[in-house]
């Protein structure tokens, strides 16, 4: 409906869309489930905001729902390969930094990434440096370097 036929008091200002990454929307199976759960949550919140007539909430929730629907529509589920000889999407990689710290990361989709929980976006500089590398290879990691000490799949990851 044209805005010309809507009373000014009934119009809901649309917030600008959230920025969508230029990288392919690779996701793990768990990542796709998280997207679907987020959409269901937002649909429920949208219905509640409609009942309450909360225009600000309607605008914000609608924007987020557009973003997550876009992410679901472009999601490409990547299965972990059987062989873990090189770092691939979905792999769990343990690195040893040049200062002696060992860190373990699983390479996942952008929307499921949380480095504090060991989930590293495939689009991050460290993940891009690791992809395609093998145990024993050294990569640039922040201000220093890190050696890949092991590669596994999600079933081999330690408790975080």
From TrEMBL:
NCBIfam families documented for this protein: PRK06342.1
Example of a GO biological process term: regulation of DNA-templated transcription elongation
Alphabetized Gene3D superfamilies for the sequence: Transcription elongation factor, GreA/GreB, C-terminal domain
Matches recorded under PROSITE patterns: GREAB_2 (PS00830)
Protein name: Transcription elongation factor GreA/GreB C-terminal domain-containing protein
Domain (Transcription elongation factor GreA/GreB C-terminal) ranges: 84-141
SUPFAM superfamilies: FKBP-like
Upper lineage: Bacteria, Pseudomonadati, Pseudomonadota, Alphaproteobacteria, Hyphomicrobiales
Organism: Afipia broomeae ATCC 49717
GO MF annotations in UniProt: DNA binding; RNA polymerase binding
């Amino acid at each position: 409906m044209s805005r010309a036929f809507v009373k000014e008091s009934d119009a809901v200002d649309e917030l600008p869309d959230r920025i969508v990454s230029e990288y392919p929307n690779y996701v793990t199976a768990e990542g796709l489930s998280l997207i679907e759960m987020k959409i269901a949550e937002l649909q429920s919140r949208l219905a509640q905001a409609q009942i309450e007539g909360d225009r600000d909430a309607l605008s914000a929730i609608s924007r987020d729902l557009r973003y997550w629907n876009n992410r679901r529509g472009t999601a490409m589920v990547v299965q972990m390969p059987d062989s873990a000889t090189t770092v691939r999407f979905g792999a769990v990689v343990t690195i040893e930094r040049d200062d002696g710290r060992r860190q373990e990361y699983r390479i996942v989709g952008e929307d499921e990434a949380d480095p504090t929980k060991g989930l590293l976006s495939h689009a991050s500089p460290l993940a891009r440096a690791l992809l395609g590398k093998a145990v024993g290879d050294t990569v640039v990691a922040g201000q220093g370097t890190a050696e890949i000490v092991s590669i596994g799949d999600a079933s081999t990851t330690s408790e975080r």
